Amino acid sequence: MNRLDDLRALAAREGLDALLLTSPVARRYATGFASSAGMALVTPRAGYFFTDFRYIEAARAQVTGYQVEMTDRAHPYKDLVGALLTGLGVGKLGYEQDTMTAGQLDGLRAAWPSVTFTPAQKAMDALRQVKTEEEIARMEAAQRVSEAAFEALLPKLRPGLTESRVRAEFIYQMFLAGAENVSFDPIVVSGPNSSRPHGEAGDRALQAGDFLTLDFGVVYRGYCSDTTRTLAIGTPTEEMRRVYQVVLAAQGAGIVAARAGVTGASIHQAAADVIAAAGYGDYFGHGFGHGLGLEVHETGGAAPQAEEPLPAGMVLSAEPGIYLPGRFGVRIEDVIVLTAEGNRNLTALPKDLLVI
Prior knowledge:
This protein is α+β, with helices and mostly antiparallel strands. The chain folds into 2 domains: 126 residues, Creatinase/prolidase N-terminal domain (Creatine Amidinohydrolase, Chain A, domain 1); 223 residues, Creatine Amidinohydrolase (Alpha-Beta Complex), CATH 3.90.230.10. 36% of the residues lie in helices and 22% in strands. The strands form 6 sheets. The chain has a 6-stranded mixed sheet with strand order 4-3-2-1-5-6. Strands 8-9-12-20 form a 4-stranded mixed sheet, with helices on one face. A 3-stranded antiparallel sheet has the order 7-10-11. Strand 13 and strand 14 form a beta hairpin. Helix 7 packs across helix 8 and helix 9 packs antiparallel against helix 10. The protein is elongated, with a radius of gyration of 23 Å. The two termini are 42 Å apart.
C-alpha cells in the first residue's frame, strides 16, 4: 500500500514543485516500505525512492510506482537527490519541518542552494489524518492482535507478581499474538501507582484490593493499536467501583458525542461533564483522546483546546480517566473511527469491571 497518487495531488494543490519525505513514518506512508534509511521525492508527475545497500533489494521488490535508486559513499543522498532536483527544475520543495533537524536542513540548503524549502507538515498531517478503508482494516487487525495478548495475559495475573514482571509477560504475549512491535512501552501500574496516568512499571508487587491499569498497543502491518483496561485484583471497595462506573459513563458520553464535523473540544467536554458532575472534575487532567495511525499519537484529538472540526475517517482514542493521588486511578480506552453518522468502535474487549 502506498499513497503516491494522494501525495502527488497534495504537491500540486500546495503549489510545490516537489515534496521531500525524510522521516521513517512519512516514507512508509508514501511507499508502504519500512526502512531506517531513505528519502522519497514526490513531484506532481512522479515518485522517486532512494535507499542504501542494506535495503535496496527489498525496496526494488516491494516498492511500486516509484523509481528506486541506490545511494552509496560515492553517490550520497544529497548528490543523487540534488541532481534530480536540478534536472526537474525544482524550485519550491516541501519538507517535514517537524521531524527534520536544524542541522539536516542547514546541510540540505547548502547542498541545494537553488531550492526554496517550504514547510509542508500541516498538509501532510491533514492527509494522514483521514484513513482509507485499508488503513482502518489494518488498525482493526492491530486491535485484535493486542486483545489476544490481553486475553492470554489475564490467567497469569495474580498477587505477588511485580509490575515489571507483568509488563515483560505482556510484551511477550503481544509478540506471540503476531505483533510486529509494541506501539509504545506498555503502562503497567497498580495500587497507588495507578493514580499516575503515565506511570512506569516498577518493583511493586500486585496486592489484593489493587486496581491494575494496563495501557497497551501493538504495531501490525505498520499500524498502531491502543487500549487501556483497569482491572481489580481481588474485591474492590465501593468507592473503587463507583469511580470505575463514572469513568465508564464518561467514556460512553464522549463516544456518543464523537462524529465527523464536531470539534475535539466538544467531545472532550461531553466526557468531562460526567466526571465533574460526579465530583471528580479535578482528577481528570488530560484530553479525552488523540489521533492514531502509523504512529500511536498523530495530529488531531479531543481535548479542551481542540477547536477544529474533526474529519470523517479519523481514528481517535477514547480514554477518559480519574486519578486520585496516592490512592488509585481508573482509565478505560477504546479506539473509534469517526463517520458522518457518528463513529465505529474498533475495540472488542468488554468494559465491565473485571475482578481477578
